[in-house]
From TrEMBL:
Gene label: fabG
Name recorded for this polypeptide: 3-oxoacyl-ACP reductase FabG
InterPro entries: KR_dom, NAD(P)-bd_dom_sf, SDR_fam
Stretch list, region Disordered: 1-61
Similarity comment: family membership: Belongs to the short-chain dehydrogenases/reductases (SDR) family.
Bias-annotated ranges (Low complexity): 1-52
Pfam families, A to Z: adh_short_C2
Top-level taxon in the UniProt lineage: Bacteria
UniProt organism field: Streptomyces caniscabiei
Listed EC numbers: 1.1.1.100
Domain Ketoreductase: 58-230
């Protein structure tokens, strides 16, 4: 079981449940660590607040921004005074959030183009793109169909290509842009039962570094955030045994929060000289790798 872009699934040891698609995709890893399984550390309070030093009023688009990590990212930018558009596939975010919400399936180029047109009409050219939408279909390789593999790659990797390609048009005209791709610690270390997911998320690293070399001179940055075990709806559905196993590989002794992932995204958007980087947000599970 995996939560796309929040990296909190136990390694698969039996046929997985039906395909899961979420607004935020990531996976767990088999990294060896020594943290005690019964660690009781708790997450610090982390309420998004406006950063007076951050530029405000940017047009920000977050794919899969209707729940989980994507919603936390959207809130983080809105709290800084940015104009935020979120895309969703099936369930819109609450209207009270104040975002422009646009239905968009990132596997459809026409829908991607329409989402950007609506964002541009309402908020101006997109200067910050966070590619967070994702999907997972966890199965052991011997039970994985070709469609299981290709559909996950189409959403997680090719979907990021579609939205980045569309965003870059306006960024090139503006001579400035920030792109952050949501990967997973599964991309860095692998994860049993997730060959499709890990391959797609690993592809984002090469994509970001190639795009950095193509567009770095135009002041367009592209970086990657790789969440580990993160406290979301999917992680809360884990069995106690799965949760203990995952925490045993996490030196922090607790899951991360969506807000902590959002902090890393906000840092990268504000760090103009950080380019082609991969930032793990995993409580030390990968020891920085």
């Amino acid at each position: 079981m995996t939560q796309p872009t929040s990296a909190e699934a136990a390694p698969a040891t039996a046929p997985a449940p039906p395909a899961t698609t979420t607004a935020s995709a990531a996976a767990t890893t088999a990294v060896q660590a020594t943290a005690p399984a019964d660690a009781t550390a708790t997450a610090p309070a982390n309420v998004p607040t406006a950063d007076p030093s951050a530029p405000s009023g940017r047009s920000v688009l977050v794919t899969g921004g209707n729940r989980g990590i994507g919603l936390a990212i959207a809130r983080r930018f809105a709290a800084s005074g940015d104009r935020v558009t979120v895309t969703y596939r099936s369930e819109a975010p609450p209207a009270s959030e104040g975002f422009l919400a646009v239905r968009c399936d990132v596997t459809d180029s026409a829908q991607v183009d329409q989402a950007f047109k609506e964002a541009e009409t309402a908020h101006g050219p997109v200067s910050v793109l966070v590619a967070n939408a994702g999907a997972a279909r966890d199965r052991l390789l011997v039970r994985m169909s070709e469609e299981d593999f290709t559909s996950v790659v189409d959403t997680n990797l090719t979907g990021a290509f579609r939205v980045a390609r569309r965003a870059v048009r306006g960024m090139l005209r503006a001579g400035h842009g920030r792109i952050v791709l949501l990967s997973s610690t599964a991309a860095l270390h692998g994860s049993p039962g997730q060959t499709n997911y890990a391959a797609a998320k690993a592809g984002l690293v090469g994509f970001a570094r190639s795009l950095t070399q193509e567009l770095g001179a135009r002041d367009i940055t592209c970086n990657v955030v790789a969440p580990g075990l993160t406290e979301t709806d999917m992680s809360r559905a884990l069995t106690p045994e799965q949760r203990r196993a995952l925490l045993s590989t996490t030196p922090a002794g607790r899951p991360g929060t969506p807000e902590e992932v959002a902090d890393a995204v906000a840092f990268l958007v504000g760090a103009g000289y950080v380019r082609g980087a991969v930032i793990p947000v995993d409580g030390g599970a990968g020891l920085g790798h």
